[in-house]
Amino acid sequence: MLNVVYRLVAPRRFEVQFNDIDLSGKELVVRPTHLSICHADQRYYQGIRPAEVMKRKLPMALIHEGLGIVVHDPTGEYHSGDTVIMIPNMPTDTDPVIAENYRLSSKFRASSYDGFMQEHIALPKDRVVPLESSVDKEIAAFTELMSVSVHAIDRFDRFSHTRRNRVGIWGDGNLGYITAVFFKKMFPETKLYIFGVNYEKLAQFSFADGAFSVTDIPADLYVDHAFECVGGAASQRAIEQIIAHIEPEGTISLLGVSEYPVPIYTRMVLEKGLKFFGSSRSGREDFIKTVELYGKHPDIFGYLSNIVGARVPVRDISDMNRAFEMDIHKSIGKTIMIWDK
Predict the structure, then answer these.
(1) Residue-level pLDDT at 258
(2) Which end of the chain, C or N, has fewer beta carbons within 10 A?
(3) Collapsing DSSP states into helix, strand and coil, what is residue 267?
């Protein structure tokens, strides 16, 4: 089966290329329908990754957040038209200790392998998770990002001590908002405080127990544990504030991505006996748990609808460029491509 792939070949330049999908194998064939643009996609699209990285990665199809419909399943488990969420992490081996998303041998779509900007995608059966057709597909399109938050919260549950009276999330962007929504559902008894820089964004955290500007944090406000969802150069200041406002022996979850080393005040880390852990990407079990949470807490979609930004029908390369350019200039939210290929 001849397949069309839309690869980024240079900053802001997509080209049509082709590959072949073998229908005689065991893989499912999925037609993407809803794709969500991530900050990582934008770093490639705008060419703001280091030059040596761009040279090594391109040409490559972007997008690692998305869902689609099954068009072919040789095993008959899925029917034509079934909606599935596509998992971008691609493990190549097994390990009884290291999770699939942390194995150095794993590949990841739109990073070390072609992403979902294709007409059709061949996927092993364990790289999809079924989704009820009634679920809002524009929101479910960024299930991958939600699964990253769920993964980090599960790791928090494993790594942190049991005093969880107050937890803080630094970061008022998409990642901070999603992490807050799921944390409050998974730990409803814990008081949740949000720390950010944008008053308009902070106002959306109506379900939290408090929201504060990072320039006006009460001196006597302390949290037992914290999540850093800022990333970039601002993550240094966020980590400084977390260390200042966290109780001794607290756990700090790092989710924000930075291209450069971030200094950390180790003296206070040692003095307070703090525990840092990083979380990146997610695996199949995280996707399954995220979809289960959709069913248990359907009001999640009401909150998440607040961060659906532009909805862009995409039929050709000019539409692709338009979607990415709109995403650059958005003030808030996720840009969803309605992938009509």
Answers:
(1) 86
(2) N
(3) helix
Q: Which residues of the chain have pLDDT under 70?
A: none
Tell me which architecture the domain covering 2-143+281-339 has in CATH.
Alpha-Beta Complex (3.90)
Could you state, in order of their start, the residue ranges of all structural domains in the chain? 2-143+281-339, 147-278
- Which residue pairs, CB below 8 angstroms and at least 24 apart, start in 216-223? 217/241, 217/245, 221/193, 221/245, 222/166, 222/246, 222/247, 223/166, 223/167, 223/168, 223/193, 223/247, 223/250
Q: Which residues, at least 6 apart from 12, have a Cβ–Cβ distance to it below 8 Å?
A: 45, 46, 47, 321, 324
- What confidence tens digit (pLDDT) does each residue in 30-39 have? 999 999 999 9
3-class DSSP state of 189: coil
User: 211: which strand partners?
Assistant: 194
* Residue range 99-141, pLDDT digits in tens: 999 999 999 999 999 999 999 999 999 999 999 988 999 999 9
What is the C-alpha to C-alpha distance for residues 22 and 268, in angstroms, rounded to an integer? Answer: 57
pTM here is 0.95
Determine the CATH number of domain 147-278: 3.40.50.720
CA–CA separation, 148 vs 174, rounded Å? 12
Contact 159, 277 (CB under 8 A): yes
Furthest-apart CA pair in the chain: how many Å? 65
Q: What are phi and psi of 56, to 5 degrees?
A: -75, -35
Q: Is the peptide bond before 59 cis (omega within 30 degrees of 0)?
A: yes
